[in-house]
TrEMBL record:
Coiled coil: none annotated. GO terms for molecular function: ATP binding; homoserine kinase activity. The lineage of its organism: Bacteria, Pseudomonadati, Pseudomonadota, Alphaproteobacteria, Sphingomonadales. This is Homoserine kinase. It comes from Sphingopyxis flava. Keywords: Amino-acid biosynthesis, ATP-binding, Kinase, Nucleotide-binding, Threonine biosynthesis, Transferase. Gene3D superfamilies: 3.90.1200.10, Phosphorylase Kinase, domain 1 (3.30.200.20).
Length: 319
């Protein structure tokens, strides 16, 4: 359960009193997620999400995320609104953390998406990309390619996570440095569109959530992140061709990638696999013992890295 910080009931009542959202009926920690503390807040007016921002979200960057969600909502993308209090403020403080009250969206986050759901996710990602082409905000991707060496270093001894992992990561970083593409189409991207960040009812996307890694980067890298997280078996060893083709088909329905982007996809997916391998390895080593959080296993992303490094990896991106 991702609750790093508890909320005192009196502090919560005082916070809610600033809003026109009724009074608190309950506030329960949410089991999913690893980054922030999330609570399902029920008031006399309905359901909301209360998020307290933790380790990887800087409070001074929250206005960027508020603007981003506002821009996407205005373009009809199914993202949650950050609720504003009576003074117009969306960003608050509680329990020593920056916090927001967020619109609750319907839907279920999937653990085993079907091909049809992958297709819907690919199309939703592409529509988000189209909507972000004219977004004026920008943010350095501090979880992106230029930062992977420092994330690896900050993780510490990677061999304590998996024997030999340190040498594998060093070799991969060198390979990516020698081959990382330049000049691909870029704008702000989601950068973490895993199935648990997409809410669905049947085959329909009802919500895209958790934009806190959103940053300026290649749109094809975002597609690679989504490919890596939606189309593999849970151990990361097998990419399901039907799900992969459906994801690519859904994306292609909305956006035609350039030849350079298509050619770069296997490499970008290697990068995406390394990124999640590294942050999971970091958290494996550093998650505080008392935190109510289930650490995520890094090894399925090592398996994906191997799959995307195989000579036939381009086949995984056929629509
Ligand atoms: N706006 C929302 N509407 C409905 N459920 C949400 C919303 N935001 C978060 N959740 C629920 O909370 C869980 C954790 O949220 P998430 O943003 O993924 O956490 P983290 O910030 O730790 O990555 C989600 O899997 C989902 O079940
Ligand atoms: N999606 C990433 C890290 C963030 O996870 P989330 O559940 O908080 O969205 C991973 O799976 O490693």
């Amino acid at each position: 359960m991702a609750v790093y910080t508890e909320v005192d009931p009196d502090d919560l009542a005082a916070l809610i009193a600033r809003y026109d959202i009724g009074t608190v009926r309950s506030c329960k920690g949410i089991a999913e997620g690893v980054e922030n503390s999330n609570f399902l807040l029920e008031t006399t007016n309905g359901r909301f999400i209360l998020t307290l921002y933790e380790k990887r979200v800087r409070a001074d960057e929250l206005p960027f995320f508020v603007d981003l969600l506002g821009h996407l909502a205005a373009k009809g993308c199914p993202v949650p609104a950050m609720i504003r209090d009576r003074s117009g403020a969306a960003i608050q403080q509680i329990s020593g953390r920056a916090a927001c009250i967020i619109q609750f969206l319907p839907g279920i986050s999937l653990t085993r998406p079907s091909a049809a759901q992958c297709e819907a996710a690919g199309a939703a990602l592409a529509r988000t990309h189209r909507a972000l082409e004219d977004f004026a905000g920008a943010r350095e991707n501090n979880m992106g390619y230029r930062h992977w060496r420092e994330i690896a270093k900050a993780a510490g001894d990677l061999d304590t996570v998996l024997p030999g992992l340190g040498a594998i990561v060093d070799a991969e970083l060198d390979y990516l440095d020698a081959h990382w593409p330049s000049g691909l189409p870029s704008h702000v991207i989601h950068a973490d569109l895993f199935p648990d960040n997409v809410l669905m009812l049947g085959d329909e996307v009802t919500g895209l959530i958790d934009f806190y890694f959103a940053a300026s980067d290649y749109r094809a890298y975002d597609l690679a992140v989504t490919h890596a997280s939606w189309t593999f078996s849970s151990d990361g060893k097998r990419c399901d061709p039907a799900r992969a083709a459906a994801l690519m088909r859904g994306y292609a329905r909305e956006i035609a990638l350039t030849g350079e982007e298509i050619a770069a996809l296997p490499l970008l997916a290697r990068g995406a696999s390394l990124r999640f391998l590294l942050t999971r390895a970091h958290d494996w080593i550093h998650t505080p013992a008392g935190a109510l959080v289930t650490r995520k296993d890094p090894s399925p992303f090592l398996a994906r890295l191997r799959r995307y490094s195989a000579p036939d990896a381009m086949d995984l991106f056929a629509a």
